Sequence to fold (292 residues):
Amino acid sequence: MSRIIIDSHNHIINHREPVWGWGPRFTGEDLIATMDRDYDVMGETRHVSKAVTMGSLGITALGDFTMAEAHQYVRECVQKHSDRLYLNAVYNPRIWSVEELNQVDQWVEDSNLVMLKLHPTMHNFLLPMGNPYPGRATTKLVFPLFEKARQLGIPVMIHMGEPPHSNPSSIDPIAREFPDVPIIIAHSGANNEISYALAATIVARHNDNVYLGSSWVQPLDLCEMYYAVGASKIIFESDCAPQSMGHQMRQVINLHLPPPLGVGATKDEVYDVIGGTIARLCKIPVDEPVGA
Ligand SMILES: [Zn+2]
Fold:
């Protein structure tokens, strides 16, 4: 049983985020320092051992950068901290070719790549549905990434949280098309004022390969998820930056509290949420106590 903590979702950039607007920066060193802060985890002082990290979402959307350029800084950080950081590469299928996507094979070797990410809102596409249009067009955009994830044996994270492109119920068809590819619903669709956490929970309940990211999710929705799909399908995401890592981790650790404050989740269940499941999906080694 893994007892290390892994943050499955965070962003490091060395300039102001050009689309979301946050800044002035949050560097790889800032992320490591944040992971190394003291956190109270069910009565013990622990640190975040590892993180699956992304670069700036904004620079994947502007059209000014190749896929390699958009990932240069985050790859440098991962390579520098290769015992702590793992790469989630963001693919913009509107502007980048499948040939560009194929360079992630090399990133597995030299940059700890363990996940791929789609952002339907930022990159302006709908996930494929059953209808010919826009289903067929978006199939061409999205299927190559899922085929790549299947080939590499890694999960796909999909941003969710706002209509029309990012309502989590739209994940159901692609989850059935690729039942062997694990899918993490980022934020469980809850990163806006109208939360789609219920839709995300229902999709996860009906698809064995769908997991629920915890960032931005309200505490009562986290409790609902525990009862609906169990702790092993909830995955801790901080979305730091801009979210606070400690705040986002506290929300999932509080599942340990007895009802009505939490759900009385066991320590093993909480450690599944804050590290065990993402380690298993991403094949992240957990035997090294680095940073713990
Ligand atoms: Zn994020």
